[in-house]
Each structure stands twice: as C-alpha cells, then as structure tokens.
C-alpha cells in the first residue's frame, strides 16, 4: 500500500461494504482516491473461511460495541460486532445476500429520497452482481460480487426447508427476485468455498492502480471544513496527527456508527449537544445520530435425535420470509436456520453436532433510538441506544416469530432430527413468557442503520445525492443513510449505496 504523499481527487473514509464499492467505481472512472481504514489488513484466516465467522467476534478485527441497557428489554445490553478491517463488516458478516423488498426503496423515495425507488436502484444491484444462475430481469452477471447458491445443504437444513413447507410457507427459489415471501436456501457471497468481502470483490483487484492509495490502521478523527466546504480530513496514524486534503468530495463510509461519530466530532450535529462537549459547531444538524435502528433476533434451539453433520459452508444456510399477521402487505419476519446450537444465556445448549437452532427474527421495526458522543475524544466509543421494543408492536412481532418457529420445529419433516426443544424450552409457553424470554436473550441481527438519514426534512442529514446538508464537498455513503432499514440483510443494500454514490459524484446514471 502506497505512502500518503499527494493531493487526491477524493478521500473515502472506511473500507467497508459501501466504501469499497464506491472506491472501485471512482478508480475505474479515472479518479485518484485515498481510501482510509482504521482497521488492519484482512490477514486473519478466519475471515476467509465461511465456517469460522463467529471466531471473528471480539477479535482485533471487530470494533465490538455494546449497547446501552435496553429499557424495553429488561435492561439487556446487546453485543454489536462491527468490522474493523479491510472489508469492514462484510469481512465479519454471515455472507447472506438479500436486497430487501421492493416496498423498502419505494418508501424511501416516497419519504423524499428521489432517485432511490426500487426501479431506480435495481440496475445498481445488478451492476455489482455476478449471479451463478446467469443474467435475468432481476440479476446481473460479470459484476465484482459473486452471488452463489448452496448445492449441498446440511441435511438438517434441508429438513427445515421441508418443515416450513409442511407448515404452509411456500418454497421461493429467489427471494431477490419478483417476490420475497417464502423459504429458501440462502444466496451467498461465497466463491470456491471462500468468503468474498467487499474488499476482495471490489478493491483488491485494482490495488495495483496508480490512482489508488489505501492506508490501514489510520483513524480519521475530523473532517476539515473551511469556508463551508470540506477540504480534507485529519488523520491519526501511528500516534501522529496529519492533515490530508483533496480536490473533490470527501466521502464518509465509516458505517452507521463510524460516520455519525465522525460528523459529530467535526462539529456537524445537534448544536446544543456539541457545545456541551466543547466541540465547535460547524453546522447545526439535529438528525445526526438520531433514527438509529436495527433488526432483532431470539434463539430457538433443539437437541437433535441424531448427530448433525458439520456442514460445508457458512453456518447459516436457510431462511424464510413471512408475515406475523396475514393482513400485512409485506413480510416482517426473516427467521434464520443454523445447523449448530447457538449459545443461550442460562441454558445448557447441546454441543455442536448434537443440536440445531433457528434464530427468530423480525425485519420491519418501528422502534427508533439514537447514538451520541460520550466525549470529544475520538478514541472513545459513542453511546448506542437502538431503543429496541420502544414500539410495542416490534415485541409482538418477535413473539409471533418465536412461536411460529417453534411450531415449525414440531412439523413432520423435522421428526427424524428433533429430540426436544431446549430453548425457550417447555416452561416458556404463553406469549407473556415468550416476551420475557426474548427480552432476556435478545440478539442483534447486526443491521444497524439510519444515523445519517437521507431525506429533505429538518432531521435529514444528507440529501438524496448523499450530500451532507449545510456543508459542500462532503457526502456520506453507507448503511447510515438508510431512512428505514431494508427488509432483510444489509450488506447488498450498502454495496448498492456505494455504487450509486459513485454515479452521483461522476454525474452518471444507469
Ligand atoms: C456479525 C455480522 C453479521 C452480519 N451478517 C450479514 C449477512 O449475512 N448479510 C448481510 O447482508 N449483512 C450482514 N451484516 C450487515 C452488513 O455486513 C452491514 O450492514 C454492512 O457491511 C454495512 O456496510 P457499511 O459500508 O455501512 O459499513 P461497514 O462495512 O461496517 O464499514 C465501515 C468501515 O469504516 C471503518 N471506519 C469507521 N470509522 C472510521 C474512521 N473514523 N476512520 C477510518 N475508518 C473508519 C470501519 O472500521 C469499517 O471498516 C452483518 C453484520 C455483522 C457485524
């Protein structure tokens, strides 16, 4: 990786899902780019082996955040792993490729994000993609990001897919196609048995380009704003502070936590809060850090009646999309099957090979929280409060998800595999008991979004061109700009945001 020595067209902060896609497209267009990542290179072999993803939690490649005690979830503090490495969270994630529902994007556009309707973002998903089944109306080929199918699922996963159908959930071969509803084997960002992160897909292939400089182990601590325009960044690298300037836009792709933290440290946020911390106000942007939200999970675990084989890929092989209430217009549940028993607080779960799990999950939360700085020290983690279940309907949907998953676990097709349910277990039966169990065992689905919300209202942080309100030459491109979380996993949407940001900067359009 080249020494930092020159003036660049662009500085991209954060080599995660969006930052890598954006960097690649800018370099392809002939722009000089400095890509700055606070984490290190992706040398840890566990990153590349899809079966070892849980080893990465609390590793040096993990920012390893924890939320504030959750007021509406019995005070539980929820662990939030986040990538701190080339590839960002795409180097730590479950490798599940899901775009979300058409309605997600149409709703963004309806709320003021012109240009982000489903029909307008679909070409960007397709441009990134290299789909194993070939090109179609919904899928692309030849893009940097391989999307593959699982041709040898674990037999207990295959039985789960059958059990969902016994229960009445339709089989859907392609939840990224015309319809999302139904059960299927997951589409994955895996090629030849190895994880493909945004870094390995987008940036590694152009690392030799003279237009690209990548620096690792360097934290951006402030955006330099002069005369109402972003001119560069302040960088903390090997104990030294440096200022680096660029000609064109500075783009923050630090993720939902990193980008909002950086705006606040740069004096872009709620003016009163910034003054209290002794940070000079550059622009009063009350929405920075607000609108923090996430998807939730709760574990259901069974002991198996016979040994469960190890599996050949990642440990998350199937999922289904369903509605917690038949009257809903779109799915709000996405439970996730794992052929290993996941840990549950205060429960003796079976060892690997002797059980299996389904993580009951919801994907259309209405609860909204916020994040804020504890101090002006850039090395101190911000306070994170997603306010899980502050909207009671979110807890009700989770209860329905857990009860539905337990009913599926009792279906005929899982009969040969199921010995007994160990969590929640036989003493947790009523909806009230399940709600208490969910609050106690609550897990994040790791889909935090929304702290630099895109829009046109007073609380919006960026406009539909991803430009920060009130400062020229500064954009945000990552999961933080999502006005509301997409209905599914968020890596593919974050990549799409990076792709679109590049075209917005270049003045191009698909
Ligand atoms: C454990 C886990 C499992 C997940 N599973 C899935 C899944 O299976 N499928 C899916 O679609 N999604 C999944 N997700 C979610 C998905 O990976 C993220 O939503 C997505 O990667 C976010 O992309 P991003 O570009 O917003 O941020 P990130 O990918 O998190 O990138 C941000 C980068 O910026 C860097 N950075 C931050 N601040 C600074 C700074 N000041 N200076 C320099 N660098 C900085 C960070 O270190 C990081 O590398 C998972 C996430 C996690 C954590």
TrEMBL record:
InterPro entries: FAD/NAD-bd_sf, GMC_OxRdtase, GMC_OxRdtase_N, GMC_OxRtase_C. Residues 83-106 form the Glucose-methanol-choline oxidoreductase N-terminal domain. Belongs to the GMC oxidoreductase family. The keyword Flavoprotein applies. It comes from Streptomyces akebiae. Pfam families: GMC_oxred_C (PF05199), GMC_oxred_N (PF00732). Its cofactor is FAD. Keywords: FAD, Flavoprotein. This is GMC family oxidoreductase N-terminal domain-containing protein.
